[in-house]
Specification:
With 152 residues, the chain is of the alpha+beta class. The chain is 15% helix and 38% strand. The chain folds into 2 domains: 84 residues, 2-Layer Sandwich (Alpha-Beta Plaits), CATH 3.30.70.140; 50 residues, Aspartate carbamoyltransferase regulatory subunit, C-terminal domain (SH3 type barrels, Roll). Bound molecules: cytidine-5'-triphosphate and zinc ion.
Length: 152
């Protein structure tokens, strides 16, 4: 089968090995629909992959990710690889990793949690990665994958 080619980017970030079907969610959580630099965003859905069978790929021209953004991607797409591209070359490649503690990037699903009333940074402990499960530091509410993705 001929290899499927999505055009290479000159400068920016390629998020590869995203579980098939999660690419749009990655674009959504990174708010790439409204890139301030006007850079191109490319999305490939259901690309054949040796490792995953099928995968999604997101390419973002002219943008490099913050640690917080990488952590968000890890929650949505734990198999993802982040490639940093400069002058058409991959200059850095790393796998995303779900951290042990998630601070500031998730809302608590408990409407009575103090984090909704006081100006505090949210904090969750990862109690399981597969399936994904976290516990709020403030109210001890546990959240599973579906709730986590809805509250990113
Ligand atoms: N890529 C890109 N633009 C470039 C260079 C690379 O869009 N100028 C993309 C490639 O299409 C690929 C990803 O960045 O999706 C990683 O590139 P590379 O490391 O060359 O590919 P692989 O060796 O296949 O990566 P891996 O081993 O991580 O599967
Ligand atoms: Zn809470």
């Amino acid at each position: 089968m001929p290899e499927l080619k999505v055009s290479a980017i000159r400068e920016g970030t390629v998020i590869d090995h995203i579980p098939a079907g999660k690419g749009l969610k990655v674009i959504e959580i990174l708010k790439l629909g409204k890139l301030s630099n006007g850079g191109a965003v490319l999305l490939a859905i259901n690309v054949p992959s040796k490792k995953l069978g099928r995968k999604d790929i997101v390419k973002v021209e002219g943008k490099f990710l913050s640690e917080e953004e990488v952590n968000k991607i890890a929650l949505v797409a734990p198999t993802a690889t982040v490639n940093i591209i400069r002058d058409y070359e991959v200059v850095e490649k790393f796998k995303v990793e779900i951290p042990d503690v998630i601070e500031g990037i998730l809302r608590c699903a408990n409407p009575n949690c103090i984090t909704h009333y006081e100006y505090v940074t949210t904090k969750f402990y990862v109690i399981s990665r597969e399936p994904l499960k976290v516990r709020c530091h403030y109210c001890e509410r546990t959240m599973e994958e579906e709730e986590i993705l809805a509250n990113l």
